[in-house]
Amino acid sequence: MESLPKKERYNMDDLVDLVTVLRDQEKGCPWDKVQTHSTIKKDLLEEVYEVMEAIDFDSPEMMREELGDVLLQVIFHVVLEDEKNHFVLEDVITELCQKLIIRHPHVFGDVQADTVDKVLSNWDSIKKDTKGQESFTDTLKSVPKNFPALMRSQKLGKRAARAGVDFEKSEEDGTELDLYAAIESSLNRVKLADQKEEDASGEIGELLFLCSNLARRLDCDAEECLADSCNSFVKRFEDLEKHSADITEVSAEELYSYKGN
Predict the structure, then answer these.
(1) Which in 50, 108, 157, 218 has the greatest CB count within 10 A?
(2) Is the distance from CB of 29 to CB of 35 less than 8 angstroms?
(3) Pfam families annotated for this entry (predicted)?
(4) Could you give the CA distance from residue 184 to residue 192 in angstroms, rounded to a whole number?
(5) Distance CA 217, CA 72 (A)
(6) For 57-104, where are the alpha helices, taking DSSP H only?
(7) Domain ranges of the chain
């Protein structure tokens, strides 16, 4: 413990030792030693989002710092489990390495996979086997429920598509399941619910689900698409407020059609 503050370079073992010291019930930090998995779980998510922002800024300095913060969260959770004698960092790393080797038989075995599609197909098949998933429904249920809803809906649509259930032409009868028509139909149901002053939450959810999977079919990330639109909305609003005598007199139509000066 005494030598830790004096080092010029640190490694993974030092980080584990540092967190262990912070968690020490006698000499540790009052905040660190009362934390649990539940109290810090949102911190991990926040740090991951900050890494994403660093990537968007293309900043090695930001990325280095934010990756360190993510690593701290990982080590903190590991130390919490080490205290319960459940597992240590080496167990986590060992299981990860084993998984990578098993899921890359085209690198570490004799399986042939010359394309990205073949690699992903093998990965999904191996993942399904190793996780004991016996049906396509099992693969859908394995998508975490606490994913952002747009991300989860795209993953659900993608996994359903692997079972052949998707908005595409059926090889059996040639029936075209048109996603645009489904979106229009869903939108009409939302309008009808609004006109009848009924709860439209279910219909809106269905509409959002369909739109997110339209993004998937067009090779777009729905979460990123919506994030970009949010940023554009703020920028348009800011520009209009700067160039308008009174922003409260600007109509929604003007806001959404505004292209900037």
Answers:
(1) 157
(2) no
(3) MazG
(4) 12
(5) 37
(6) 60-83, 89-102
(7) 4-87, 134-257
- Helices 12-23 and 60-83: crossing angle in degrees, nearest 10, is 60
Protein fold of 4-87: Helix Hairpins (1.10.287)
Instruction: Output the six-digit token pair for 168.
Output: 């595409």
Query: Hey, do 4-87 and 134-257 end up sharing a CATH topology, with the first three levels equal?
Result: yes
Q: Which two tokens stand for residue 229?
A: 């639109």
First-to-last alpha carbon distance for the chain, in angstroms, is: 60
pLDDT at 175: 46
The predicted-structure confidence for 48-83, as pLDDT tens digits, reads as follows: 999 999 999 999 999 999 999 999 999 999 999 999
pLDDT in tens, 86-112: 999 999 999 999 999 988 998 898 888
Across residues 106-123, what is the average pLDDT? Answer: 83
The class (CATH top level) of 134-257 is mainly alpha
Is the pTM for the entire model greater than 0.70? no
Angle, CA of 242, 232 and 215, to the nearest 5°: 165
